């Protein structure tokens, strides 16, 4: 089972951006990428990168954001459609506490990644994503 979520925050520079992450609940293997906001396209890119790296997974545990379908989208979204086509079951969490592993990962990223980005004078999304993939996640 994988957990997926987005975390809007002042990760680098002056404005907010969103770190979208997917994490394996059993192994803590993580893939994440910065985007201007939490969007369907961003979630699909993160999910695709994870699948290319590790293969198709069985279950995706998410919040009730409209991106993932659920009642806000009359139980339909492009993420749901994509997951159905891949045979991935979406399970909706009833509370943030239910997504403990991804929420703790975001807490860690906010505590450690933000200072590292500042220390390395990273102020743009392209550089932040490169640092995230090449330095931070491999050493996480």
What's the arrangement of secondary structure elements?
Elements: E1 2-9, E2 17-24, E3 30-35, H1 40-54, E4 59-62, H2 78-86, E5 89-92, H3 100-119, H4 125-139
Parallel strand pairs: 1-4, 4-5
Antiparallel strand pairs: 1-2, 2-3
Number of strands: 5
Radius of gyration from the CA trace? 15 Å
Largest sheet: 5 strands, mixed
Give unreliable regions as ranges.
none
Strand content: 15-25%
Helix content: 40-55%
Description:
- The structure is a single chain.
- By secondary structure, this protein is an alpha/beta fold.
- The protein has four helices and five strands; from the N terminus they run E-E-E-H-E-H-E-H-H.
- The protein has helices at residues 40-54, 78-86, 100-119, 125-139, and strands at 2-9, 17-24, 30-35, 59-62, 89-92.
- A five-stranded mixed β-sheet has the order 3-2-1-4-5, sandwiched between helices.
- Strand 4, helix 2 and strand 5 (89-92) form a beta-alpha-beta unit.
- The longest helix is centred in the last third of the chain and has 20 residues, at 100-119.
């Amino acid at each position: 089972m994988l957990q997926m979520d987005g975390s809007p925050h002042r990760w680098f520079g002056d404005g907010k951006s969103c770190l979208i992450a997917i994490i394996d609940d059993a192994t803590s293997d993580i893939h994440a990428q910065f985007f201007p906001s939490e969007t369907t396209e961003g979630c699909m890119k993160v999910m695709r990168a994870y699948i290319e790296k590790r293969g198709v997974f069985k279950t995706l545990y998410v919040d009730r954001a409209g991106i993932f379908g659920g009642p806000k989208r009359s139980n339909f979204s492009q993420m749901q459609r994509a997951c159905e086509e891949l045979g991935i079951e979406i399970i909706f969490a009833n509370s943030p506490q239910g997504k403990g592993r991804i929420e703790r990962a975001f807490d860690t990223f906010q505590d450690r990644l933000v200072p590292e980005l500042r220390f390395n004078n990273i102020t743009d999304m392209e550089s932040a994503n490169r640092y995230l993939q090449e330095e931070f996640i491999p050493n996480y």
